């Protein structure tokens, strides 16, 4: 896949920034640099102002040499998170709308080639799922769908958001990519945050795992956060699917992307998610050579917190309960609870195939109790539209 030309990418675009640093392809020089980091480099990074971003600082903190410094990194990350966010952790739930998808992503259970009974929720059925979540206490909702443009249309999403906004204080969406004007329509309807994973920032790897469909266009995908941030979205969700490429190099590129967005869209909050490959329909885990260990997942989270003081760190139910309990004090600001990753899965638990296998199956109340035991405050709602005059 070719790099976009300078005629289509201004010098200050994220495409140009990644190409300039050679972080989107031909990453061998960065692989060498990360291996050459010394303990002195790591200690210098730890002495730098906490929460301030520099590419070479992030390089030191994700290096093999930094693995011996996880304890002091964890202490600093915890202190920084408490300073910026207090002891609160927002709780949210995903609401899946459709398991239909036109893309051929080799890591996803919704891959169009997979043969299973797919489900679409009508707006009324989606509202019934939302009622179930509201009864559990949730006021922070994430709408999720495969790329099913013919059914989950922009008018569908806008109508659903309008009917949900009186019951939920925050509505986000993790959906197929739209245009800037379409994101504006969703913002006007009540959707205030968009999550769009690049999946992998390495062009060659991206082409290998995205075989067909609109999502196969790397450059279009990379433009997405600019489009929805420019539409006024309050929350910009980023992430790489951990397991597709070298996690250390993905973290460096993710950091550069986030720093670009922080500078350009300073009114919005940027958040990082850390999805690791999970078992799913038609997805053999042995086909992915870059699976990330628990220890390296921790290192990635700590490194990003120490470079981005005000970023949200999001942890999903992809991770097992014991690990989530340990991670929550290391900088996490938002986590899902009681999640179902199949449309209709809350009111009809055995309905349809999941996008991926959920590991932490505890109820929302059990998650809240766990947070309380750790001296943390579960927050079901931390934003009120009345405050903003919406």
Could you outline the blueprint of secondary structure elements for this entry?
Blueprint: H1 14-21, H2 28-36, H3 39-47, H4 55-61, H5 70-85, E1 88-98, H6 123-135, E2 140-145, H7 154-164, E3 170-174, H8 180-189, E4 193-195, H9 203-209, H10 218-230, E5 235-239, H11 247-264, E6 269-273, H12 294-307, E7 312-315, H13 321-327, E8 334-336, H14 364-373, E9 377-379, H15 385-388
Parallel strand pairs: 1-2, 1-8, 1-9, 2-3, 3-4, 4-5, 5-6, 6-7, 7-8
Helix pairs in contact: 3-4, 5-12, 6-7, 7-8, 8-10, 11-12
What do these coordinates show?
This protein has 390 residues and is of the alpha/beta class. It has a single domain, classed as Aldolase class I (TIM Barrel, Alpha-Beta Barrel), CATH 3.20.20. The chain contains 15 helices and nine strands. It has an eight-stranded parallel barrel with strand order 1-2-3-4-5-6-7-8, surrounded by five helices. Helix 7 runs parallel beside helix 8 (180-189). The longest helix has 18 residues, at 247-264. The termini are far apart.
